[in-house]
């Protein structure tokens, strides 16, 4: 399965596994600790032969329990290990106490305030707080990490977080700033080199690199192991309130593409769908042309650009397979949409406010797949409710943060509290259509709460995708994928997930130096690699 679990869902999964006697709490803790040690030794193989020195910070809960397991297993592998404990052994859970006692048979449990003295450490394991964090962390924790770091002298101290960095809210993907004045300060001392979590990633792991530069998910035997296989994504039901991760391995994604588009069965271009991209006035046509080219490349059978009469020459000089239609007023568009072979409409890229205000109502007057981006969103910033009352469930909004803020000011204001995922869900519920909130961690949400995250972080980071026109191309990719579906088989979320992934994968394939026009041109080689 490729779904993410919130803290509450993780606790349910653990409790169910224990209720069904698939594992005891102690076995889960032992497996968790063993998984952390495997990940450490796998991540730093050259550390192991030299009897490295590890400092393990254990907290008052079961995260601390995991830490005691890690300490024992590292010591049994010949590491020098020091354990510092913040808590009261008498108040530990039975499982954590048992692990505390097993470690105690090998070495002392020191107080976390004493971390300033000792040998030069190679690695620090943060097992102070995990998913049980309920409030900002006490000052002793950052102080302890700083003290251990100061013992290091030169060279970087390797930081490992058990389940998540202490102080990090794994549902929202942000630090709970506490004694340290800002998340930046927290992030500075605790952006781990390696974070090892269990059973499933949590949303925060995929929303922010603050959770760790490298993320490992360890199976501890409480259910179907986490998988980034594309077939797992296809198999994961789009249930209300489900949270899906769209960061599959490229290998085997051809099946995913064919599942979303059904193009293997398409016989002629009309079966592959016709996309209409509405363009702005003279000299404003580039964005629409990029969206149109992306739609055609990704799989649509036909693509037309709807332009004002005066802009015909500008477009005609630059287009071949993409057709041109004159669309002046809303009634021109309504007339065109009587042709049901026009399966998807794109409004926004370079459209201009005036044309957007005029054409969006016409486009939404029929329940046709529709991608609204850029000007089609900003044109309604002063009266979002007017847009929401026209929207339907075959539309998708693709705002970046600024456009999102203009359409959903109150939801944006609440975002530090609710987190990005709940914000996107609230927006989708209000708009009555799918909302794709763009970012390095793009969140896509449906009105029923089903949501997906595409995490272009860590090894999937593509900073060079921040280039003019990239958003226009994304709108075209999603539109092209939507057009390949028969209206009654439309899966807006599924098309948006694949479009988002292709957008980043094309950028990863091209690499630095990318400009938006390059993106559609990367698709053929990407499709070959995917096995489309
Ligand atoms: N069988 C299992 O459940 C497994 C759990 N795993 C590991 O366990 C943690 C979750 O353990 P939990 O005990 O629920 O929570 P934590 O260890 O993260 O810490 C919570 C304890 O710390 C106290 N707390 C919380 N916030 C603060 C704070 N800011 N300052 C001080 N103390 C704090 C809290 O006390 P309360 O006062 O809030 O009640 C708890 O005592 C999970 O992350 C895994 O690492 C295993 O890995 C798998 C099996
Ligand atoms: K931790």
UniProtKB/TrEMBL annotation:
Coiled-coil region list = none
Q: Which residues participate in (6S)-NADPHX binding?
A: 62-66, 130-136, 163, 287, 350, 400, 472
Q: Does the keyword NAD apply?
A: yes
Every copy of the YjeF C-terminal domain together lies at: 252-530
**Which coenzymes or cofactors are required?**
K(+); Mg(2+)
Q: Say if the entry is tagged with keyword NAD.
A: yes
EC code: 4.2.1.136, 5.1.99.6
InterPro entries xrefs: Carbohydrate_kinase_pred_CS, CARKD, Nnr, Ribokinase-like, YjeF_N_dom, YjeF_N_dom_sf
Q: Record-annotated residues binding AMP?
A: 438-442, 471
Q: How is the cofactor bound?
A: Binds 1 potassium ion per subunit.
Q: Name one GO molecular function term.
A: ATP binding
Every copy of the YjeF N-terminal domain together lies at: 10-228
Which sites bind K(+)?
63, 126, 166
Q: Which GO terms describe its biological process?
A: metabolite repair; nicotinamide nucleotide metabolic process
Q: Which reaction does it catalyse?
A: (6S)-NADHX + ADP = AMP + phosphate + NADH + H(+); (6S)-NADPHX + ADP = AMP + phosphate + NADPH + H(+); (6R)-NADHX = (6S)-NADHX; (6R)-NADPHX = (6S)-NADPHX
**Which UniProt keywords are present, listed alphabetically?**
ATP-binding, Isomerase, Lyase, Metal-binding, Multifunctional enzyme, NAD, NADP, Nucleotide-binding, Potassium
Q: Partners and quaternary state? A: Homotetramer.
Q: What does this protein do?
A: Bifunctional enzyme that catalyzes the epimerization of the S- and R-forms of NAD(P)HX and the dehydration of the S-form of NAD(P)HX at the expense of ADP, which is converted to AMP. This allows the repair of both epimers of NAD(P)HX, a damaged form of NAD(P)H that is a result of enzymatic or heat-dependent hydration.
* NCBIfam families linked: yjeF_cterm, yjeF_nterm
User: What's the family?
Assistant: Belongs to the NnrD/CARKD family.
Protein name stated in the entry: Bifunctional NAD(P)H-hydrate repair enzyme
Taxonomic source organism: Salipiger pallidus
